[in-house]
Amino acid sequence: FFNQAVTYICEHDESGSFGVIINQQTTISLKQVIQEMKIESGDSYNENQTIFIGGPVDQGRGFILHRPTGNWSSSLSVNNDVALTTSKDILQAIANNEGPKDCIVALGYAGWAAGQLEQEMASNTWLSCPADEQIIFNTPVEERWKAAAKLIGVDLSLLSNDTGHA
């Protein structure tokens, strides 16, 4: 599930961590979600926008990672520019072309129990890089994994999944 996943960590504290995968798309369109939720829509929104697999937890629930942060009913400000919102009002705004400038609509999230992510980081399960809004919102989906690795000087074409014996 997490193979080549780029996960934007939205919150990390002593009780655990959670984030949204930003490079795994579904075959579901925004139009399908809007229709399923019976939201009235205008004519000018991006109805073909692809919905992402945000992670393996709570996949029936929508999570919208967006900028600018705005003033939505249920939002977590991740930083000064980016927020994660779970309320229907943001989808209504998006469906009427009144939503945030940039957004990723995802189903589900990635979550870790207290200390779990730290343990995975210590065992080199993950590569960690600074969050880059250009990668999140402006880099083509298929290039996000390589772009994130490049931030920390890693050329993924030089890595191998094969293991051997010395």
Topology:
Layout: E1 7-13, E2 16-21, E3 25-29, H1 30-36, E4 50-53, E5 57-67, E6 75-77, E7 83-85, H2 88-95, E8 102-113, H3 116-122, H4 133-138, H5 144-151
Parallel strand pairs: 4-8
Antiparallel strand pairs: 1-2, 2-8, 3-4, 5-7, 5-8, 6-7
Overall description:
By secondary structure, this protein is α+β, with helices and mostly antiparallel strands. The protein has one domain (7-158): 3-Layer(aba) Sandwich (VC0467-like), CATH 3.40.1740.10. Helix content is 22%, strand content 31%. The chain has 5 helices and 8 strands, in the order E-E-E-H-E-E-E-E-H-E-H-H-H. Strands 1, 2, 3, 4, 5, 6, 7 and 8 form an 8-stranded mixed β-sheet that branches. Strand 1 (7-13) and strand 2 form a beta hairpin. The longest helix has 8 residues, at 88-95. It is globular and about 60 Å long. The relative contact order is 0.19. The model has no long low-confidence stretch (mean pLDDT 92).
* Helix amount: 10-25%
Taking all residues together, what is the mean pLDDT? 92
Extract low-pLDDT stretches.
none
- Per CATH, the superfamily is VC0467-like
Number of strands: 8
Q: Give the H and E element order.
A: EEEHEEEEHEHHH
How many H/I helical runs? 5
What structural class should be given to the helix and strand makeup? Answer: alpha+beta
The CATH topology comes to VC0467-like
Short description:
With 166 residues, the protein is α+β, with helices and mostly antiparallel strands.
Question: What tags apply to this protein structure?
Answer:
22% helix; globular; alpha+beta; 5 helices; 8-stranded mixed beta sheet; 166 residues; VC0467-like
